[in-house]
Amino acid sequence: MKIIIDAFGGDNAPLAPLQGAADAIKEYGIEILAVGDIEKMKKVCEKNNISTEGMEFLQADSVFNMEEDPMDIVKKRKDTSLHIALKALADGLGDAVVSAGSTGALLMGATFIVKRIKGVKRATLATIMPCENPNGFMLIDCGANSEVRANMLNQFAVMGSVYMEKVAKRKNPKVALLNNGEEETKGTEMHIEAYKLMKANEKINFIGNIEGRYVLNDIADVVVADGFSGNIALKVSEGVASFITKEMKGMFMTNLKTKIAALLIKKQLKEFKAKMDYTEYGGAPILGVTKGVIKAHGSSNAKAFKNAIRQAKIYAENDISQIIANSIVSGDEE
Amino acid sequence: MKIIIDAFGGDNAPLAPLQGAADAIKEYGIEILAVGDIEKMKKVCEKNNISTEGMEFLQADSVFNMEEDPMDIVKKRKDTSLHIALKALADGLGDAVVSAGSTGALLMGATFIVKRIKGVKRATLATIMPCENPNGFMLIDCGANSEVRANMLNQFAVMGSVYMEKVAKRKNPKVALLNNGEEETKGTEMHIEAYKLMKANEKINFIGNIEGRYVLNDIADVVVADGFSGNIALKVSEGVASFITKEMKGMFMTNLKTKIAALLIKKQLKEFKAKMDYTEYGGAPILGVTKGVIKAHGSSNAKAFKNAIRQAKIYAENDISQIIANSIVSGDEE
């Protein structure tokens, strides 16, 4: 099992990806193909005492920037670590890719370099969000496709369900549709149509619509959304959590009494922080493409990167793309 | 100034509306027209020592239930306190209406009984949400119109702006469009078109797109959204706040040490709770109709109801509907 990493994607590259990769080699017994400026990578490893055992390197002369047009990853920017990593995956030099680089470019590259699974209408980005269930829930799509049709949501449901069952080991995962009410007549025409398709879809355990109010309540394992409102749901929840955290910090810093309170509850606060920490949940899988592509958070540290590599490994081991291909081809075509 | 209340709408009716109304009469020097079963209302006032000075009553034989089809408010259910309250407003028996009843029915009733302002394409529901600014920000539309066109969002922007300037006394309110990125090319075709219209609109202080991540950061006074993603934003933020509150309660109840911590920080926790409390922010205005219609939260207590009545009073005093009518008619027509 060999995982390809884009060693120059993300805020903490190349140190965090390389450190995470070395830790992953040790912990999971895998091999790594690290893509980027080889000289720089070797220097960083040497300087930081990062073992390169089990690690191969592949040269890329440049880095894809966050500000660039995602579409450019396919043809214009073939010299970037992101393009070369995805090309290496397409060419069979490894089993899955992990990158903390531009989400848009990764999605474009996954779609057009690694390529969509036959029958899949749109590749999609899913994320695991913290909730009452200590293992979180999946939000799919969380921002890749702003404009979708009902049959795409129905495919997202199947892909999310397969992933949560095989990678996150959730049995018979409960699938819900994010909507503005619980009744099946709620939402736009598109949502009403998606409800019908999902209800009739025997490959998923559809439990109906879910309102934004309840997504964190461990009701659904997979919450299906159009990419626009999925993005709103994800970002608003991050914003609210950050707002409350900031307010709490202010509270605890008010005076001597509150500072003592902070000391007394330190352990629990730390545990809570860990629960809300994205690094514990690993990366966001791009689903609907022929091989495993995992987007690590842009600000990933070594641990987050290692966790994303673990996800990539499980994805490849279980041949998730093949299972999705089978699920899609055997019935979802119109 | 006479405010009409639907005394039988909401979870705590008729006690909370009547108590809130009596408090509002005392505090704001207004009159109240309370609509509902007169005998029952009088009994509740007597039993709870609620003064009926400044209060008139108008008979309604039944109550509109949350489960009923909102459309029925217009013709089928003319005997309900909600219909009769809105009819009384349309007939000039009072200056504004407050109800904690069915949001959908209130919106339908406002649109078809009180009637839309000429030129307004859709009446909309706005809400004030807690954020870093202690007075909150407005989210418009927060759930009334799932499917909208760009010119409707542009009208929401104007209406929200007028309301925040005149009722919430926010000077030259900053207006932003809820979107999945900051660039003007973000979102669906509809959002891109809405961005252009709002940018060209001289009646508003448009500051561009805002991501869900930043809505609580006191960047915009008015956040414009289509009703679908507005509903998702509102409900997800309620869900996350409720989730974190629950987790915090658990933390503080863990053991003796954490219980002492809770005591030490009690005052600050209470203040924070008040900040997040919807009752402090009053009700949600329905904008785009010819007179003031305020939706109080379904679970409003007397205080929330009193605050909603205060909003209704300021709305009527400032003739907000007329200002909106002038803003819309003088340029937004295609």
What does this structure look like?
The structure is a homodimer of 334-residue chains. Chain A is α/β, with parallel strands linked by helices. The first copy, chain A, contains eleven helices and eleven strands. Chain A has an eleven-stranded mixed β-sheet with strand order 3-2-1-4-11-10-5-6-9-7-8, with helices on both faces. Chain A is globular. In chain A, 55% of the residues are buried. The interface between A and B is large, with 51 and 51 residues.
How far is it from the N-terminal to the C-terminal residue of chain A, by CA? 36 Å
Count of runs of 4 or more consecutive helical residues of chain A: 11
DSSP strand (E) fraction of chain A? Answer: 15-25%
Greatest contact pair?
A: A-B, 51 and 51 residues
Which overall shape of chain A is indicated by the principal axes computed on the Cα atoms?
globular
Main features:
homodimer, 334 residues, alpha/beta, eleven-stranded mixed β-sheet, 11 helices, 44% helix, disordered C terminus
In short:
The structure is a homodimer of 334-residue chains. Chain A contains eleven helices and eleven strands.
Q: What is the element layout, followed by pairings?
A:
2 copies of one chain form a homodimer.
Chain A: E1 2-6, H1 15-28, E2 31-36, H2 38-47, E3 55-59, H3 81-90, E4 96-99, H4 103-115, E5 124-129, E6 137-140, H5 150-166, E7 174-178, H6 189-200, E8 205-210, E9 222-224, H7 227-252, H8 256-264, H9 266-275, E10 284-287, E11 292-295, H10 302-317, H11 320-329
Parallel strand pairs in A: 1-2, 1-4, 2-3, 4-11, 6-9, 7-8, 7-9
Antiparallel strand pairs in A: 5-6, 5-10, 10-11
Helix pairs in contact in A: 1-10, 3-4, 5-6, 5-11
